[in-house]
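Run log // design_07
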């Protein structure tokens, strides 16, 4: 974990992503890249030179705003800035622009606020969902209501299908922060679960790190999101880690599934989303 891309649309709500990343960089020396992706529409009568002029002018104006936005956030948090830079990237398609910039600049994570609302993009949350579905780089989704605090505990929600492959990715985030890690599995009544103490010893031996295990029984009268929310409230983690596929994933079922059931814990706990292999 060396470089985190923090994307913003300069809205007040999007500042939550900056707060999370800045606090994270206080715990572990990291390079932060604050990114704004912009698009300039081209009139059919413009020459290449004229179009490039307008793109450059827009980039310069946004850079001034972004620099001030970032500086103000550091001052509000009373944090002495570490290593960081501001970047304005021109590309049509905000999500593609974020992903391409992150890949080109070898960023380890992409950090984005979940409910920002800028003048150009009405719902930054739409970009968050698209990032989760398409980014090969892990995405940290930070709720707009997030209050900056150290990351001390990471809850890894697992279906137990590929946990041996997934845990190293979780530890790559948690270890540098010296954060506690707990594996959460929501089990069905018919599942046979390994003894918790024996399983914890096996995990510690295999991964050289203390990993707690929490089995929570599913209530079949509840939705998955209800049971997950209850388990998260009980565990009180700093961050919840999940793995998702691009098809009908856990993220889709929770966030995009039922219009009548909302995953309410997403309004106060940052999510770390990895692509499932």
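design_07 sequence
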């Amino acid at each position: 974990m060396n470089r985190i891309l923090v994307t913003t649309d300069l809205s007040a709500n999007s500042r939550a992503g900056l707060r999370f990343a800045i606090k994270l960089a206080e715990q572990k020396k990291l390079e932060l890249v604050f990114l704004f992706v912009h698009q300039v529409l081209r009139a059919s009568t413009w020459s290449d030179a004229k179009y490039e002029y307008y793109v450059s002018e827009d980039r310069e104006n946004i850079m001034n705003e972004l620099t001030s936005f970032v500086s103000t956030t550091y001052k509000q948090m009373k944090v002495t800035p570490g290593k960081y830079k501001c970047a304005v990237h021109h590309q049509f398609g905000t999500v593609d622009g974020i992903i391409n910039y992150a890949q080109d600049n070898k960023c380890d994570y992409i950090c984005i606020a979940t409910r920002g609302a800028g003048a150009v993009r009405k719902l930054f949350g739409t970009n968050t969902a698209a990032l989760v579905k398409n980014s090969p780089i892990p995405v940290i989704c930070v709720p707009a209501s997030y209050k900056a605090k150290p990351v001390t505990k990471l809850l890894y929600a697992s279906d137990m299908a590929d946990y041996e492959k997934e845990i190293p990715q979780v530890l790559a985030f948690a270890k540098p922060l010296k954060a506690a890690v707990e594996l959460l599995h929501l089990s069905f009544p018919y599942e046979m679960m390994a003894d918790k103490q024996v399983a914890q010893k096996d995990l510690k031996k295999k991964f050289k790190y203390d990993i707690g295990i929490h089995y929570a029984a599913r209530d079949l009268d509840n939705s998955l999101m209800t049971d997950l929310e209850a388990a998260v409230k009980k565990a009180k983690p700093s961050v919840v880690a999940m793995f998702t596929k691009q098809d009908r994933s856990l993220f889709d079922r929770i966030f995009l599934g039922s219009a009548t059931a909302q995953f309410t814990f997403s309004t106060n706990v940052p999510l770390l989303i990895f692509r499932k292999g």
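Residues 116-125, 250-266 have pLDDT under 50 and may be disordered.
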